[in-house]
Amino acid sequence: MAIQLQQVSYIYADRSLWKQTALHDIDLAVPQGSMVGIAGATGSGKSTLLQLFNGILKPTGGSVRVLDVTIKAGEKSPKLLPLRRRVGLVFQFPEQQMFEETVEKDLCFGPLNFGLSLEEAKERAHRALLDMGLDPALLARNPFKLSGGQMRKAAIASVLAMDPDILVLDEPTATLDPLSRAELITLLERLCREQGRTVIIVTHRMDELLPYADSWVVLEKGRKAFQGSAQELARDPFILEQCGLTVPQSLRYWRAVADRFGLDNEAPCLTAESLAERIASLCAQPEEDGRGERDGYE
Amino acid sequence: MNETYRPVHAAAGEEQISVSLKEVSFGYDPEHPILQDITLAVPQGQWVSIVGPNGCGKSTLVKLLNALLPKSGGEIVICGHKLEEETISDIRQCIGMVFQNPDNQFIGATVEEDILFGLEGLCLPYAEMESRLHVYAAKLGIDHLMSKHPGELSGGQKQRVAIASILAMEPGIVIFDEASSMLDEGSRNELLGILQEMRTEGKYTILMITHDADEILAADRVVALAGGQIIADVTPEELFRDEVLLAECHLQMPYPWRLARELHRRGIDAGVAADEKELIDRIWPFNYNK
Amino acid sequence: MVMNEKLLLGRSIETGSWVHRLDARAKLTGMIVYVAIILLSRSWLALALLAVFSLTVMASTRIPLKYFIKAAKPLRYLMLFIFIVQMLSVKEGAVWFSAGSFSLHEEGLRLGAFSVIRMVFLITFTALLTFTTTPGKLNQGLEGILSPFRRLGLSPDRITLMISIALRFIPTILDEAQIIMKAQASRGADLQELSLKEKAKMLVSLLVPVISSAFRRAQDLVYSMEARGFRMDARRSRYHRPKWGGADTAFIAMFVVLGIAIVIL
């Protein structure tokens, strides 16, 4: 397991007058190399949960085990710097955390903090930029002069440059246009499938992540309401409504088709393409001769 | 396909024009204009979606209308007022704007103060402020939040406050500049509901900058910008049928449309279903007939 | 989010007591008189009288005492520091303790204790003002108090607008600074685990994003204020018109009487 939470609670120390979401009794297991979506309504504790993954927040109850480091409530935690390199945490609007005058310098900031030489850091920066689908020519540019989508990708690359085993992102696609959003999700999926990194994404647009995520975690008011595979979620998507979320269209359509044709035991088709393909094959099935199936409609 | 076509360019002579732009341009450097040669007329009561890739000048365009940014050339007429130095404050009264970031447009320290900010600027008498405060807070469903500080509100609630503050000033034109892009799914749907109610009332001309397929579909008309120019002026249905235009605007089809396209490619002409039940009703015969 | 608690000063706590209902101008004037009284209190008797008076007023707001204590808490080290400095620097009165050149005098201890007690009164009583008055009303009161200075070329509207925007946005910006701190810590820049030179670099990595974000917010805010028709120094009407009543006059009279009593004592 890349991440394992046992009975984890997090309660904010101060009794401030402001709204804060605590976490209660969270059990969670994220297998190495998997792609996980985390969903939940505003204020369900998603952001708090993410900050437990690299020790920015320490649990006030239970234990958090990330890779080979265990952080137990009430015990002095081990040195966290090595863990932070291996767990890349990308906050919301990461482009707002850039500060150097060139993209390259910003990308080197992380690797240098973790003790790499300038040479190695530059090498990492170059690779990270390529992994995020950006032109290495951008290295010399001022990050604030890039377009919105490029800036977001460069900012994610600045975390990726630490070469983390686990990449955790909070709403990485927020405010991007639909094309850039789809592109970004595809890039993140490649990091998971081709490079074997564990990728965890918090999103309130489940639609765009559904075709790619291996499993989902749904939070409600600081508690875990669901954890399971996309297939399990597709079997009963209406748990989302109980958690104050909207059931994504792709799930609703799959559910309707699966109910009508009794497809509950197969892997869900969560893209328009795959669902159309499945429907077409259903419509063609009764006919003996598989080749002539289309002729009736054309 | 089963779309309901709403006439857009009907009876041009009789309509009142709310927003009119003639050859409007904007740029800091004449060599590299950000917007050029924008000509557009929006009749009273119409709901127009403005779409285009990030950085195409959409947000700049709407800021020219009430002189938040100064146009470099051309003519702008808003509700019969020609945009000039002297008419700026009249024009600003005609236009309400809701911006993207829920936090940064919350001016007051409480919900009540935020709504009052604009009303006090209009120099309204007490009784009028009192009545508008209650009418518009109730209308947006925020009357129980009047003494709350923005830090205690969700993003969706803050956007409701912004809308209440703006509608309370009773503008004829309301502009939404990616107002839903920082909200969660539930709040986005609520915002769309508010807009649909506004349309039903018929008092408002709505301009909405958006990337959201559902929001675009709800509009009467779509104006697409790219590279600082208008590249299309169509109905939402025409936009979603034109894959080249969609790609130019960095947009994607709504899910039911994509599904209809994919089914069509596979020889099943079920059309665009309104929801999943309708889809089942439509594809069932294909299965059954076989 | 943790920062917000430290900004307890500046949040009103509604209980609907008679102090809450007073005109903000009366409360501000009362506060000014109170500060003068603190400066004039030079005897234990005066302090005792001040304590009885202050606690009575605080109790009558029906706001739990712990909130007042919380408001004074962030300054406890400053108070300790002032106490020690006073204690060590004043070399008058009976010697209570001495070791070599080091000595503690009765007068030093007395003055140190005095300073701390006066500071506690000052802070808790100012907290009372912000606890019982919403920022909007407080601002309006301030505008009222400052309006005589209009003739001197001072613009009370500008000052109060500045204050209200600062009050509105400081918590937001502090929250954001915290997120940026966490984000940079996630990129390996953790203050606790760094050398001094690296700490300086870390500061840049915090300040640049915090400042540029503050500018972005300011730009957005200007757009939305202008879009709502705001013009500097333009005429505005007022929804909350302060009403001066008998209770307000009585409130100020109370402070004046206390002041006279303390001076006579």
From TrEMBL, chain A:
* Protein species of origin: Paenibacillus albidus
- Name of the molecule in the record: Energy-coupling factor transporter ATP-binding protein EcfA2
Record key words, sorted:
ATP-binding, Cell membrane, Membrane, Nucleotide-binding, Translocase, Transport
Q: Which PROSITE patterns match?
A: ABC_TRANSPORTER_1, ABC_TRANSPORTER_2
- Tell me the protein family, please: Belongs to the ABC transporter superfamily.
One Pfam match, given by its short name, reads: ABC_tran
Q: Where mainly located?
A: membrane
Gene3D superfamilies named among the record's database cross-references: P-loop containing nucleotide triphosphate hydrolases
Q: Which gene encodes it?
A: ecfA2
Where the record annotates domain ABC transporter, the positions are: 3-246
What's a single GO MF annotation on this record? Answer: cobalt ion transmembrane transporter activity
- Top-rank taxon, per record: Bacteria
TrEMBL record, chain B:
Alphabetical UniProt keywords:
ATP-binding, Cell membrane, Membrane, Nucleotide-binding, Translocase, Transport
Source domain of life is Bacteria
What InterPro entries does the database record attribute to this sequence?
AAA+_ATPase (IPR003593), ABC_transporter-like_ATP-bd (IPR003439), ABC_transporter-like_CS (IPR017871), ABC_transpr_CbiO/EcfA_su (IPR015856), ECF_ABC_transporter_ATP-bd (IPR050095), P-loop_NTPase (IPR027417)
In terms of Pfam families, this protein maps to: ABC_tran
Kindly list the places in or outside the cell where this protein is found, as annotated in its UniProt entry: Cell membrane
Q: Name one GO molecular function term.
A: ATPase-coupled transmembrane transporter activity
Where does it mainly reside? membrane
Does Membrane appear among the keywords? Answer: yes
Membrane topology per the entry is: Peripheral membrane protein
Q: Where is the ABC transporter domain?
A: 19-252
Q: Which GO terms describe its cellular component?
A: ATP-binding cassette (ABC) transporter complex
Enumerate the Gene3D superfamilies for this protein: P-loop containing nucleotide triphosphate hydrolases
Is Translocase among this UniProt entry's keywords?
yes
**Per its UniProt record, what SMART domains does this chain match?**
AAA
The entry's family comment says: Belongs to the ABC transporter superfamily.
Report the PANTHER family cross-referenced here: ENERGY-COUPLING FACTOR TRANSPORTER ATP-BINDING PROTEIN ECFA1, HEAVY METAL TRANSPORTER
What's the protein here called?
A: Energy-coupling factor transporter ATP-binding protein EcfA1
Automatic annotation (TrEMBL), chain C:
Query: What sections of the protein cross the membrane?
Result: 31-57, 77-99, 111-131, 244-264
- Give the GO cellular component terms, alphabetically: plasma membrane
Domain of life, per lineage: Bacteria
**Subcellular compartments:** Membrane
Main localization, broad class: membrane
Which Pfam families does this chain map to? CbiQ
As for membrane topology, the entry says: Multi-pass membrane protein
Keywords, comma-separated and alphabetical: Membrane, Transmembrane, Transmembrane helix
What PANTHER family does the entry give? Answer: PROTEIN ABCI12, CHLOROPLASTIC
Q: Any idea what this protein is called?
A: Energy-coupling factor transporter transmembrane protein EcfT
What is the protein's species of origin?
Answer: Paenibacillus albidus
- What lineage is this protein's organism placed in? Bacteria, Bacillati, Bacillota, Bacilli, Bacillales
